[in-house]
Amino acid sequence: MNTPHQELSDAAAASAAPALGPDELDEIDTLLDDLRTRGEEIPQWEFCDGFLTALICSRRPIPPSEYLPMLLGDGSAIDLAEGEALPLLPAFADAAQQARFIELWMRRWNEVEAQLDAPVETLDDDRTFQPEAMDMRGAVASLPEDQRAEMAGQEIPSFGQVWALGFMFAVENWPEDWAAPRDKEAAKWLDDALDSIVALTEDDTGKPEVCMFSEDGPPSTSQARVETFGEAIWAVYDLRQLWKSLGRASKPCASCPNPAATNPAGAAAAKNSRSATGPERLRKNSPCPLCTPKHPHSSLQILAIARAMAAFCASIGCVFAHLSGTANSFSASEQESPLTSPFAPSQPRCLFAIESIATAA
Fold first, then answer.
1. CA-CA distance, 211 to 201, in Å (whole number)?
2. Residue 359: which residues within 8 A CB-CB, separation 6 or more?
């Protein structure tokens, strides 16, 4: 069976590896910091996680030779012969560093795939998909007053905003793989799901009511934002199920005189992944994406998100660095860091957020 990761033969063993824990997440943050010394537009891990999630939800299996240069390079796909291994990318110091990044990337990839394919109905299910999102405003607000003063004037992203920007960055760069199907019901499903994620790219301007960083932290996030984050999680499930039900295209084509014949198996039904009471979604055809109208979202809106991504991540880079340095200083002095204490060793960074949303629901 053809998979998008055949180029990463050495990473195949990662499929049996456990999910990323706090140590591995710290390692990948450090690795990305090093990559940023050779390319200032290398994004934060939260952005990468959104990008990775969109790739998993994409209709076409996009190979690493396409997506890694888009995420970590100049965007130019690498032309590889069948069976040829991925060469060393300019962003990496050496082959060992690239191999380690790919290993960690594949462990997260496999974890997200397993979560999205699990039959969950509530957000507090242990198997529920958990975006690698961090409440940066809550983290900053939890710092001592003198350290908060050092960060005055810095633009701090809303909860889940950087993750959603990463997701939409992938959507914008492979528009043919996200084109609306001709089936009106399927197109609406796609549109509604992407609307939910686009909403997360916007700033949280509501009144801070809860802290998604820690249970007893100062309010940093509006209740509306909490609900938007929950809807975005369900939207990811919907997108994954949509393309699985239509069938995955191995390669976009320039024309398709008989779209229904492109994938006869596309008649499979897609069931609502949230609850048995939701509407049943049936797909009759799997038309070629390039034979259908583009996604009904404003192309200018999506393009603006992509253009703002580099500047936005650059503007918050020092915020991440400051928080990282603070956490390290606490560790060195054997004190409990306010940046890490809410997360037990087996918990991802957003688990408290997931639990908060489920409780509110």
1. 19
2. 124
